[in-house]
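dumping the sequnces here before i forget
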Amino acid sequence: MISSLELAKLCGVSQGTVDRALHERCGISQATRKRILEAAELHGYRSNPAARELMTGQSRIVAAVIPQLNSAFLMDFAGTVKSALYPAGFHLIITPADTPEEMTELINEFAARRCHAMLIVPHDDGFKLPAGLDMPVASFLSRCKGGKTVFLHADEKVSGSAAVDYFISQGRRNIVHLTYNRQSHAVQERAAGYRENMLKHGLKPQIISADDSDSLLEFVKNHKVDALFCHNDWLALNALRTLEQHGIKVPQDISILGMDNSLLFTSLCDEISTIQYPFEWLAGEFMAVLSGSYGQTTPAPPPSIIKRRT
Amino acid sequence: MISSLELAKLCGVSQGTVDRALHERCGISQATRKRILEAAELHGYRSNPAARELMTGQSRIVAAVIPQLNSAFLMDFAGTVKSALYPAGFHLIITPADTPEEMTELINEFAARRCHAMLIVPHDDGFKLPAGLDMPVASFLSRCKGGKTVFLHADEKVSGSAAVDYFISQGRRNIVHLTYNRQSHAVQERAAGYRENMLKHGLKPQIISADDSDSLLEFVKNHKVDALFCHNDWLALNALRTLEQHGIKVPQDISILGMDNSLLFTSLCDEISTIQYPFEWLAGEFMAVLSGSYGQTTPAPPPSIIKRRT
DNA sequence: TTGTACGCGTTATCAT
DNA sequence: ATGATAACGCGTACAA
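..and the predicted 3d for all of it:
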């Protein structure tokens, strides 16, 4: 990789002239510009981003630090964010952090690099953000403690509530929520939305944890469950298979509603309906965080139910 | 973010002394070192990687450029590579490139950054690597044209062959390979291994494309297929559901073998067996590429079949 | 139109 | 034990 100084020497000009040619700045003759650009092309010259970032104190990199890679949901979101960033000249780079400690370490590393912004997906609501972060930071799925983060989130209560409405409109009454046992905003709020709406309709909220999946089958049988609202599509698919294997017909006996509309899973079956997660809208919100215009943005779209054979 | 110069001024010493304290170098009294380290801690000082990389011409960043994020397989591999890199002090960063052109652009960007090494997953075998890359580069799944890339790959022919052996040992003879229609090394070689071993056993190779999934059901019915070897676990799960929905019993009527052992899918059902993809071994090979010791490494492990209810 | 000089933050070397 | 100085590659302001 050639440097701008080397390129200048090669062309018999000064570094300043090279810079003028490269940045289409004025004060240079067409002839020398052409000559320099051709030489640059020939030698595959590229300005070193590290040097530029050092100069300007700003980088075009947006760092996403996430707890795990093998989450279809997170990857869908990351892909959407990337598609929003790229046309604006930003590069999204993704790094997994196995533990909260590792996450802290990586955040500090990127902060030292003075990346343009950060998108953090904490392991849970307990994550403590390192102090002194000098760029826009957004967290997703779980809140960060400390620091002035924007917390990007869908209205999970409304989603949980919408699920109940949906089932009721289908004539189901014995509606169970299958979710995780985790101190995470999305998990807690969605369950709260479910619970409140159930009570409002005079129905008994019943939440079971996905961690002991054995209990699902028993519960469904013993309680005559006729509707199952799952925290995500993977859980929905998993439940679908468990129930089907034991002779329970979906959606005849029990109706299943997932969430996120993860293509990876929903394309596998048309028995489960799902709720579209507002990826695009959240990506837009994140862009607003970058530009400093967060807060004056468009309202969240209402939960949209993707109805399949249910 | 404070700089080393600012830190020096804060402590009333020179930049050189700060550096000695930070890097545990000799030529500094314990007292001043302690004082400086405490001040650094207090102000959250971190050396700027961009500046260091500019100085040393080397970075600890390993860039992975991949065609898509929503691939459980790629994410499993990326996770394994990351776990191998991190303890060695390297950072794996992952960037998706929607198109080959975008991939070229990103590779050039990382090259200009003088990252430590690159792991490239091309869209297909036609990808042309940019010239002048100055760091170790490995490609995965598909070969790159041009450049001196190490091509990381499992022995796909052996895998395809092992699948046939497995089914035959189970008493199946009418074995079909369900795969993609893509000019990618993994796809082509695995199919070749399947085909050759089928012929060796006097059986007729039958390959159907996953792209027209409608044909699968018809084909299975018309040809009395009793074994299905799928290119990956997603395809296997997809096939399983299609067949089950039409009354075909798995594994009684037809046995299904997937590949990769992607937890995301295999945990969803125990009807399909799968072949373990050698993630760990390949990550080890990549580390060897980094250290320049590639080629003297351990041989690939033989295909290991994860047998489930089949 | 072109060249020169300085600074970004680090690190390494040479002098004190 | 500590300070001064140079260099990495780039961008910019100023001088020629």
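The radius of gyration of chain A is 25 Å.
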